[in-house]
Design brief:
Helix content is 20%, strand content 23%. It is an alpha+beta fold and 835 residues long. It has 3 domains: 69 residues, no CATH class; 419 residues, Alkaline Phosphatase, subunit A (3-Layer(aba) Sandwich), CATH 3.40.720; 190 residues, Jelly Rolls, CATH 2.60.120.200. Strands 6, 7, 8, 9, 10, 11, 12, 13, 14, 15 and 16 form an 11-stranded mixed beta sheet that branches. The chain has a 6-stranded antiparallel beta sheet with strand order 23-34-25-30-31-32, with no helix packed on it. A hairpin with a 2-residue loop joins strand 27 and strand 28. Helix 6 packs across helix 8, helix 7 runs parallel beside helix 11 and helix 8 crosses helix 10. It is globular, with a radius of gyration of 28 Å. The chain starts with a helix and ends with a helix. 53% of the residues are buried. Belongs to the sulfatase family. This is Sulfatase. GO terms for molecular function: hydrolase activity; metal ion binding. InterPro entries: Alkaline_phosphatase_core_sf, Sulfatase, Sulfatase_CS, Sulfatase_N.
């Protein structure tokens, strides 16, 4: 036997620098052989090219080949399955006292540890940016959601290159990395399929991506679904499609592919389904199952009491914890409701609960797939329940269309019962539940999603299992930790150091701390290693420091999305809580201990300056319509000369709060024309310009509640035609926002439809959509990829049967005159005086 054969399976250990410590570099196989592998120090990634160790002569005679070793993670590094659900507060899952069955989360908790003192940022994109970078959300550019981005470093929705994600770090250390589900961390103005892609998952270290772009999606017909960097529409022609199941199928197939081709190579799967963010879209099977359980018939007040008692029995809240009081000045009690209100509200929450159970069930399938591959023992599974508290964005009475809510439109309960009760949760609704349910699901705390100052908005239940390492199965941990602590925990578990250089760029320090110490049973009561943490969301702010919590009072309830204009967050009044003895924030000590409050306030401002939190901004929905550096920025004329589908909302020209003109030069075929010319949005808000049975139509869908149509009376003859829709807006537009005045937003106007220069229809709209179209739908030319603007007229894809020579959109945005400016300045001064 030759020496080279004898050492083929030998592990050779050398020492490389690891930030002051030492790491055993593992080299397997004969160096230079095709099967050789190596770990790297990880200090610089990608790793520098390996030195050629063979010999090169003039010919292959006498030369010796030498292959660079394949980079692998350190020996024993676990597979990693990182799971996080959406818009789910502490009291939602059964694992933390909720009444909704979540057996997959229960399974992880029983096989590992439950964490009762874990925190988010109070909102989607920010929590997710912090989760994948290990830095605070403002540090990572996500002080708010991507669609609200403003031109400040903490708020521009750009994760800069000095903050490499966990995907990049693990990939370059030899993991196979993937991302399934929600991506709310690509700037909304960079979501087009033309790129750039450096801020997409595949550009942030995730080798495979299957999921949706943006904050939420229609689970039945996800028009913003992508595979890697290509938008796909698997729901077309597939009426039973639901993304919650399709995503689990995709992840299971991917993991099995990795396991088949490279069974010894660890994988990192980032699994983040859309459940349970609105729209709540479970299958009928799950709705029937949950409805039959009658979990909510006694109402939201009784639900809180039940959850609270369950939490004490489970030990996930202290025995002396107090249930925070019901906010009678804000929300009705259940006994105050009419029979119709109770009926509708139970329907809303049954569908939400079905969505919770359905989502957890599909997560359970993914976990089971890991066990079926024989890899569960050495897989680190982190299951975070929710990226923030339960959402209160459904209005005080719920809504069949979340897009309506974000445009300030409410649907009365009687209309919900009459038109939407039976279809609630189906593809005909973009539904959300009433605020009091959200408050109840954040038991035992007060407040909800969007509120960073109070625990209802930021406290998340979490379970972690790693059978090979965690012996204290079923244990509970109470140490304070935050979403930024997940990355350092994963890296320590994998024995991989944070890089100091990535692609030649010096890295900013990771700001979280590892939680790995809590895996040891001996440390179950150890002090937390996370001592200080700021919280801030849309002006609302707080600071945690070694058991104390100072927070501003909630000045804008989260269901008031148009509020905050003109408010000064730096002047908000403060509250003070000692969480060591007051776990639920029940006893405000600000008046009793002003010295401590002053100390914590000073710490907050230090942290705010350090982590790019400034300038504080209290506005909410108005940020959606402030200009962004998209591909449309600075342009008022847009031209399409052929069909083009899939331009996402953030990259499409906006015609809201403006005058505009569509001119379509088309050719109608023999036998007549039919189909979509241009559309943006769909069933839940948007417009369409199309031919219907040969007649031209321009149709405005006003949040699925009203349709305004312009239609020609004559069928177009074969041949070339010029169709024109011209709209004159009556308002002052977005310029009013500079004066904290929204009087120019959502005003009406007059539309004129012309065929070959002749007016064929004229109509006035009393109001227009002020803030946003259906955000999960695209701008499409030549067909419609998502849902119809009007189901009575057509079904997708509604491809145009003729030829598009040219479609031109010209936008005329209102310009403020000196007189307008003077009026608005006076209105702004009057508002400040009244405040």
């Amino acid at each position: 036997m030759t020496l080279s054969i004898r050492v083929l399976a030998v592990v050779v250990a050398t020492t490389v620098s690891m930030g002051g410590s030492a790491l055993a570099q593992q080299i397997t196989g004969v160096p230079g052989s095709p099967s050789a592998t190596t770990t790297i120090s990880g200090e610089q990634i990608p790793a520098p090219p390996q030195k050629f160790g063979g010999t090169i002569e003039r010919t292959t005679v006498g030369s010796k080949p030498y292959w660079p070793a394949r980079i692998v993670p350190p020996k024993g590094a676990p597979n990693i399955l990182l799971i996080m659900t959406d818009d789910s507060g502490y009291g939602v899952p059964s694992t933390f006292g909720g009444v909704i069955p979540t057996p997959a989360l229960d399974r992880i908790a029983a096989n590992g540890l439950r964490y009762t003192n874990f925190h988010s940022t109070a909102l989607c994109s920010p929590t997710r940016a912090a989760l994948i970078t290990g830095r605070n959300h403002h540090s990572a550019g996500f002080g708010v959601i991507a669609e609200q981005a403003t031109g400040y470093p903490g708020y521009d929705s750009v994760i800069t290159k000095d903050k490499a994600t966990i995907g990049t770090i693990l990939r370059d250390n030899g993991y196979r990395t993937s991302w399934f589900g929600k991506n709310h961390n690509t700037p909304a103005f960079q979501a087009a399929s033309t790129g750039p892609f450096d801020q997409w998952p595949t550009g942030m270290g995730f080798e495979y991506f299957y999921g949706f772009m943006g904050g939420d999606t229609n689970q039945w017909q996800p028009d913003n679904l992508a595979r890697n960097t290509t938008y796909i529409y698997p729901f077309q022609g597939n009426p039973g499609f639901n993304l919650i199941t399709a995503m689990a199928d995709e992840a299971i197939d991917y993991m099995n592919q990795i396991n088949t081709l490279t069974p010894d190579q660890p994988f990192f799967v980032y699994y983040v389904p859309g459940g349970t963010h609105a729209p709540h879209h479970p299958t009928k099977e799950w709705v029937d199952k949950i409805s039959a359980m009658h979990l909510f018939d006694q109402g939201w007040n009784k639900l809180r009491e039940t959850i609270f008692e369950n939490q004490k029995k489970l030990g996930v809240i202290p025995a002396n914890a107090k249930l925070t009081p019901w906010p009678k000045d804000l929300l009705k009690e259940w006994d105050q409701l009419t029979a119709d209100e109770k009926k509708m509200f139970v329907r809303q929450v049954d569908v939400f609960a079905a969505y919770v159970a359905y989502t957890d069930n599909e997560i359970g399938r993914v976990i089971q797939a890991v066990e079926d591959m024989g890899k569960l023992d050495n897989t680190l599974i982190i299951y975070i329940n929710g990226d923030n508290g339960t959402s209160a964005e459904g209005t005080l009475i719920g809504t069949p269309n979340e897009v309506a809510m974000f445009n300030g439109v409410q649907v009365p309960v009687e209309d919900q019962l009459k038109y939407f009760y039976d279809i609630w949760g189906t593809d005909r609704t973009y539904n959300h539940m009433a605020v009091p349910w959200a408050w109840a699901f954040d038991t035992p705390f007060s407040w909800t999603k969007q509120v960073a100052s109070h625990l209802g908005g930021v406290k998340q239940g979490m379970a972690i299992s790693w059978p090979k390492v965690i012996a204290d199965k079923g244990g509970i941990r109470h140490q304070f930790h935050h979403i930024i602590d997940i990355v350092p925990t994963i890296l320590e578990a994998a024995k991989i150091q944070p890089p100091t250089m990535v692609e030649g760029i010096k890295q900013s320090p990771i700001e979280g701390v590892s939680m790995l110490y809590t895996f040891d049973r001996r440390n179950q009561a150890a002090p937390s290693t996370h001592h200080t943490q700021y919280f801030e969301m849309m002006g609302d702010h707080a600071i945690y420091h070694d058991g104390w919590w100072a927070a501003t009072k909630v000045m804008r309830p989260p269901w008031d999305i148009s509020g905050g204009v003109g408010a000064d967050p730096a002047t908000y009044p403060w509250e003070l809580y000692d969480l060591r003895s007051d776990w639920t924030q029940s006893d405000d000590l600000a008046a009793k201990n002003p010295g401590k409050l002053k100390e914590l306030q000073a710490i907050f401002w230090q942290e705010a300056k350090k982590y790019q939190v400034l300038p504080l901004d209290s506005t909410v929905v108005t940020r959606l319509i402030t200009p962004k550096p998209s591909i449309t920025a600075g342009r008022n004329v847009f031209t399409w000369t052929r069909p083009l589908t899939g331009t996402p909302n953030g990259d499409a020209p906006s015609i809201l709060n403006a005058s505009y003109n569509f001119t379509a030069n088309i050719e109608v075929p023999q036998g007549g024309g039919d189909g979509m010319l241009i559309t943006q949005g769909g069933r839940f808000a948007g417009y369409g310009f199309y031919l219907l049975k040969g007649k031209p139509v321009f149709n405005w869908n006003l949040v699925g509640l009203k349709w305004v149509r312009w239609e020609g009376s004559d069928v177009l003859s074969p041949g070339k035609h010029v169709l024109e829709f011209d709209f004159k807006y009556d308002g002052l537009g977005m310029g009013t926002l500079a004066f904290n005045n929204m009087s120019g937003i959502g005003r009406g106007g007059t539309g004129v439809l012309k065929v070959d220069g002749k007016v064929v229809a004229t109509q006035t709209m009393e109001h227009t959509i002020p803030f946003i179209l259906a955000w999960d739908e695209n701008l499409d030319v030549g067909s419609d990829t998502g849902t119809p603007v009007d189901d009575k007229d057509y079904q997708v894809p509604f491809k145009f049967t003729g030829k598009i020579d040219r479609i031109t959109l010209t936008i005329d945005r209102p310009q403020l005159s000196p007189a307008d400016i003077q009026k608005l300045q006076q209105a702004s001064r009057n508002n400040k005086t009244s405040e």
